[in-house]
Amino acid sequence: MTLYSPQANGSFLPFDVGALIVQPVTTESIATRISTVVKTGAQTFRIPIVSADPTAAWTAEGAEIAPSDPTLTELIVTPKKLAGLTVISNELAHDSSPEAAKVVGDGLARDLARKIDAAFFAATTVNGPSGVKSLTTTVVSAGGNWSNVDPFTEAQYAAEGAGTTITAFVANPADALLLAKLKAATASNLNLLQPDPTQAGRRTIGGVPLYISTAVTVGEVWAIPQDRAFVVIREDATVTADSSVFFTSDRVAVRATLRVGFAFPQPLGLVKITKV
Fold first, then answer.
1. Fold of the 17-50+68-274 domain
2. Phi/psi at 64 (5° precision)
3. Which residues, in sequence order, are CB contacts of 181 under 8 Å at separation 6+?
4. Which of the residues 27, 70, 93, 136 has an alpha carbon 20 to 30 A from that of 61?
5. Which residues of 201-219 are buried (b: 16+ CB within 10 A; e: fewer)?
6. In 3D, which of 69, 75, 74, 73 has the Cα closest to residue 53?
7. What is the pTM of this model?
8. Mind listing the pLDDT tens digit for each residue in 45-56?
9. Which whole-number Å values give the CA distances from 121 to 37, 73, 130, 209, in the listed order?
């Protein structure tokens, strides 16, 4: 009897890793949409932080100008590996059409995006990066109910006091629904939240877009300044297919790996708005 060795391991599907995984993940993930996304080829990424500015002084004509130095520190980010595995039929694996590859990539990308968001809005994640709940941020209380947008205005001004500007609010769907039902006045049918003219279906609070994510804890809304939140993505994302494990069922395992880290150089610029 003639024995035939299984197909060799390797990437044999028509994959463009950037188009299949990296781009859809950054589009799907709320964390990447509200943060500054940085791509790096290095194992670590360093963000310089000026914790104290150099000082200026009124100086008499002809007098020596006193020198001063800024206080500089740095935040070192080490992206952590996020991996996904799916199994597809050999027929789909050998389909050379872009649509077939997209079907494979979309599911992986969606779950990678969900895992990124879950880590971003958490405190700590096993084997993953630490998120916003691990930080000592500014906290604003809504006083027990979402009755008006005053806490959001307070959050905006708190961020401005820290030298930054809120560019996104992120809420759980349950809280977003309660906020969407707020009216401009008693006995009014006019919603307090206004539509975003730049994107259909999205609402704004004080001119700031409101995003929705199930990764956010119910009863909390995060106010994020884009220039104080970083998502660092390693450029060595991979998509690999292997038919050896599922040889007897004529299926192919497709594995995607992506390394992601978070950085928050000024935690007090981020504001957690709590319902209680």
1. hypothetical protein PF0899 fold (3.30.2320)
2. -70, 140
3. 191
4. 70
5. eebbbeebbbbbbebbbee
6. 69
7. 0.86
8. 999 998 889 999
9. 16, 25, 9, 18
